[in-house]
Each structure stands twice: as C-alpha cells, then as structure tokens.
Amino acid sequence: MLIKVVDIPQPLTDFIKAIIDTQLKHYASDLYPELEVVDENVFDTSLTRAQQVCATLNLPIHQHFRKIYRTSGDQIYCDYRLSHTAYLLVGINGDVGSKKVARIQMDLINKLLGNN
After folding, report:
1. Residue 116 pLDDT
2. Contact (CB, 8 A) for 37 and 31
3. Which among 32, 80, 110, 111 has most CB atoms closer than 10 A?
4. How far apart are alpha carbons 100 and 36 in whole angstroms?
5. Which regions in the chain score pLDDT beneath 70?
6. What is the pTM of this model?
C-alpha cells in the first residue's frame, strides 16, 4: 500500500484552524467555580481523563482541547480552550468527592434512564 503525502496550502490550514477555533468556546478555568475546584492537581486529572476519552474514541484531541497561556495581572498561567463536548467531559470526570461533580454525574444518569 502506497501512502501519498499531500501538502495542504497554508491558507487552507489557517482556515481549518479558524473553524476549529470557533468550536472552542469554553475555558477550562471557567469550570473551577462551577465544579468548586479546590485542588488544581485533581482538576488536571479530570482534564487528562477527558482527553483520554477523546483519544479512546479516536476523536481528534486538537478539535476539543487547545492549551493556551493567559495573564492575570502580572501572572501568566496555563489554561485550555475547550469544545462544549470537552467541557462536559471534564465536568463528569471531575473529583467524585465533590458534591457538584457527583450531582452532575447523577443528573446525567437520570437523563439516560429517562428519570426527570
């Protein structure tokens, strides 16, 4: 089997990247207050697990997660831009010791079971 490598012109690559960017509507840091995050390492685990879900399902990670750097005052910190799918995956893979995360998980189960 012969695989042909095709160079994609830069304007087309830029256009594709711009389309993907329109889907990255959320910041991972926006989940901190929503999930009542108290431990950044636990949150990072949630982020990693959400990325693993995408990898397992062969979903292009770059279409759901983009590592970025932001500033706040004199501080520079790492954040991620997330698709809506990634945003939800991070939430349901959060710290199960958190009542907020547990509630999100239970709400999801109830919706899947048709319980309102």
Report:
1. 67
2. yes
3. 80
4. 7
5. 116
6. 0.80
How many distinct structural domains can be found in the chain? 1
Residue 6 inside a domain? The answer is: no
Q: Which two tokens stand for residue 55?
A: 């990898």
Which tokens belong to 34? Answer: 């929503």
List, as one string, the DSSP characters of 63-112: GTEEEEEEEETTEEEEEEEE-HHHHHHHHHTS-TTSHHHHHHHHHHHHHH
- Beta partners for 82? 26, 65
Classify residue 56 by its DSSP letter: H
**7 vs 47: CA distance, rounded Å:** 32
Q: Which of 46, 33, 56 is nearest to 86 (CA)?
A: 46
Query: What is the per-residue pLDDT across 59-88, written as a single tens digit (0 to 9) for each?
Result: 999 999 999 999 999 999 999 999 999 999
Determine the structural domain holding residue 59 and report its residue range. 25-113
Predicted local distance difference test score (pLDDT) of residue 7: 82
